[in-house]
Design brief:
By secondary structure, this protein is an alpha+beta fold. It is about 20% helix and about 35% strand. The strands form 4 sheets. An 8-stranded antiparallel β-sheet has the order 12-18-17-16-15-14-13-19. Strands 2-3-4-9 form a 4-stranded antiparallel β-sheet, with no helix packed on it. A 4-stranded antiparallel β-sheet has the order 5-6-7-8, with no helix packed on it. The longest helix has 26 residues. The structure holds FE2/S2 (inorganic) cluster (FES) and fe (ii) ion.
Amino acid sequence: MDAQSTPPLRDAWYYALPSERLKKGDMVPKNLLGEPVIIGRDKEGKAFALVDICPHRGIPLRFGKFDGCEIECCYHGWRFAPSGVCTDIPTLIDEQKPELTKVKVRSYPVQEVQGGIWIFFGDKPETAPPVPVLPGLEGHEPKMVVTMMFDGSIDHSVVGLVDPAHATFIHKAWFWRSPKSIRNKAKKFAPSPFGFTMVRHPPSANSRAYKLLNFLLGKPEGTEIVFQLPGVRYEHIRVGGHIMCHLTTLTPITEFETEINHSVFWTAPILTLLRPLFWPFARTFLRQDRDVISQQQEGLKHNPQLLLLGDPDVQARWYFRLKNEFVRAQEENRPFVNPIKERTLQWRS
Ligand code: FES
Ligand SMILES: [Fe+2]
């Protein structure tokens, strides 16, 4: 990890996988927060997550078999239920079988919300920032999810995500905005649970994406951007009686690699027709963010003193304050107190 970053937060829910990538009877191995995890879906459709290590002799369970009910370890055939409890040790004679319920693979709490599988890392789910529920999209699943790996810590990835000043220089694609369109912006922010919100406002007049929405669905009524710990941001747009929402989640894979999942939801059927067009746009956009984060690593290796300056960097400073407060509240065993105060921020973008 670079010297400017601190370890990923524990006692938090992290986005693990889009629901559609985990079919009944599947198990998907994944490294998350430096831990080997196996994410599965039983034949009833319930998702679960276990440490991907057999408690017998430590081989990863992913090399075994899952029949939709139990995982069988490849090495000596020990069997485990999705809860992690051992159900059979076929190589022992009956008289030698221990109380099997005492043999367990550690399991993680899992929630599946709006087409995303979230896994809890830590001990106290009660005090954790809740898994976000996108307003007006209850029961909806994303219409597309783009996944990409960033070559940086979750801290630098979050700072990149909430940074309003880079768009003009990094996201220069013709379909997004003209590089000449930089102008003064003033946006009002308010504290929100475990984070902050850019309160609902008319969308940027210099964004071509908004112009397209305007053309297809009518005048956008307003957009709101919510950030919450540990690394969740969503932009919620109301337009012509419909909703469009971009949910971006950051999940630490290791201390210096972060997976980003960008899920896009919409309720207007006409947008579904345009999905083949959105796909390359979303990928281009995320690639631009990924490339700049990986270039940044070259400088960070030398441990420079960084300069977070003025209103464009206030959201980055807020992120670090929120993260510090969350850690301190855990250490002091007290409730989290949101340190953010309502404020208008100004910048040029
Ligand atoms: S290592 Fe898994 S059953 Fe032996
Ligand atoms: Fe970006």
